[in-house]
Amino acid sequence: MDKIRIVLADDHVLVRDGIKSLLEEQPDMEVVDEASDGAEAIKILEKDLPDLLIVDIRMPEMNGIEVVRKIHENKWDLRTLVLSMHDSEEYVVQSVQAGADGYLLKGASKDEFLKALHKVASGGKYFAGDISAILINNFTDGKPSQKQKKKEDPFNLTKREKQILKLVLQGKSNKEIGKELEISKRTAEVHRFNLMKKLDVKNLIELTNKAREYQLA
């Protein structure tokens, strides 16, 4: 059986090394090339198309969404899986609109990651549970809806971020949050980091005060 030929595009060497190490253990997968930014990824694809591109969103030169969009503009025959730390509604929707075949958070388990790769490589679509909820809320018959954002929330928090906020304000740890929401501790950490960054706060006291000020939870 032919192996699934994969190109990795991520500006963090440790991330690429970790993914490559995992994929090298799989008998039906092969990492044929790597890129440290979007422009380099495009150059690689222009020379030899793999079966699948795993691409990070936030990269220098050209971000992952722009890379996916370029692939579809050129009508290149390969599948694309966006792998990101961010479950931002904006990133998810833009990735799908650009033509991504899948979107997975970096906090995903090894089993889910491999499941996503096989699904996308075989011609299917794969979006993690949280991501699917965002897509359902934003798309109808494949077209973006004109959903109004709540005026009282100037930070545009996602449903998951609001869940995390509520649990953080209850004093729960990342491990406890992960257990309650049935996500990994690492995913809980990523959500918490993104939440603190969105609200521009540095500690629990500032977070609590801002949440109360804007009635976020």
UniProtKB/TrEMBL annotation:
Positions carrying 4-aspartylphosphate: D56
A Pfam family recorded for this sequence: Response_reg
Superkingdom, natural source: Bacteria
Record-annotated Response regulatory domain positions: 5-121
Key words of the record: DNA-binding, Phosphoprotein, Transcription, Transcription regulation
Residue span(s) of domain HTH luxR-type: 150-215
SMART domains xrefs: HTH_LUXR, REC
Protein name according to UniProt: Response regulator transcription factor
Organism in which the protein naturally occurs: Gramella jeungdoensis
